[in-house]
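Re: your question about C-type lectin domain-containing protein

S., sorry for the slow reply, the queue was backed up all week. Below is exactly what I fed in.
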Amino acid sequence: MQWSLLVFIVMGQCSSIGGQLYDYHFIGENKTWEEAQEYCRKNYTDLATVSNQTDMKRLLNSTTEKYPDGAWIGLQRDWRWSLPGVEYNKSESNWSKTQPDNVDDQEICVRMNDGTWDDDSCSKPYRFICYDVRNISGNPFHISGSEMNWTDAQSYCRKDNTDLISGVKQLEDFKKQYPDYGNHDWSQEAVWIGLFRESDWSWSDGSNFSFRSWDKGQPKKTCAMTTLNKTWSSDDCNNKKPFFCYNDSVILINQSMIWEDALYYCRDHHGDLVSITNLDQQHWVQERDKMASTPYVWLGLRYTCTLDFWFWVSDETVRYKNWALPQSGDDCNMSGAMDRNGTWVKLIDDDNQLNFICSK
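Result:
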């Protein structure tokens, strides 16, 4: 890269992001958890994700309004299909009226009764339907003759077939395989299917942050909320409450470019290639990196052999560092990228086309 361009990068476009890469917004309207999620995704980025205690303080300081019944954040225990790779889509679900109701917070497994779904205690014995991907040209379905609890039914299916029947497509294929399903005696009985509520909690935006701040005796329900005593509680997701959204200032671009083209793309469409100046920013950018389609993503980190130092294109000084060790020597055409594990690497920019992360 020419010296004139280097000067332009350092001096001509200073967009310092030494602060936070995201901010919180309190919404005083009462909505269910899913309605709040939809609102946040439409108007901001998502329901609030909280990665550490610093975030928690920032979130609580983002409003002076009171919310005695709690305010939703983006943490919940969602439904999941037993067969890996099959995603749960609420819009395609077939719940019975008033279901799921999760009585006493004990009903986290799903049975099918006359084609519709109910949640029930996993310890109850029912017949079940297995699915075998190895027999899709024939009849991949096995209807058990005996009753088992949900966990034993899952183990049985995984041992002798592939898994419990999972996903709307498999259920539709099952009905095609058994067009007279409703005329069988067993069709009047409840049968386990491969849908269950995961025991762990997940963030609405897909982040894997493990930070939790539960109040004593919590959680008991399925969606998380902040409370006035500055901890987290939980409640039925269908209850209506105010909520917190967050607005992300970084974005992963799933296009592959050399570093210089990535720089101009960010400046033309967003703000700049992202800079990382502290550990909190590192963790936040690292979560976005996990969704990249290339093994590394470009950062706004560049080496100048003329002045012999690394710098951020936003004109931030490189104080915080997260280099992978060992690293090769510095070269005039080197730029910084992030590995999937979050460490930084030095790459020849003209030899690598990578995804990249922009700051807004």
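The first helix runs from residue 3 to 11. Residues 3-19+249-359 form a domain with the Mannose-Binding Protein A; Chain A fold (CATH 3.10.100.10).

Happy to talk it through on Thursday.
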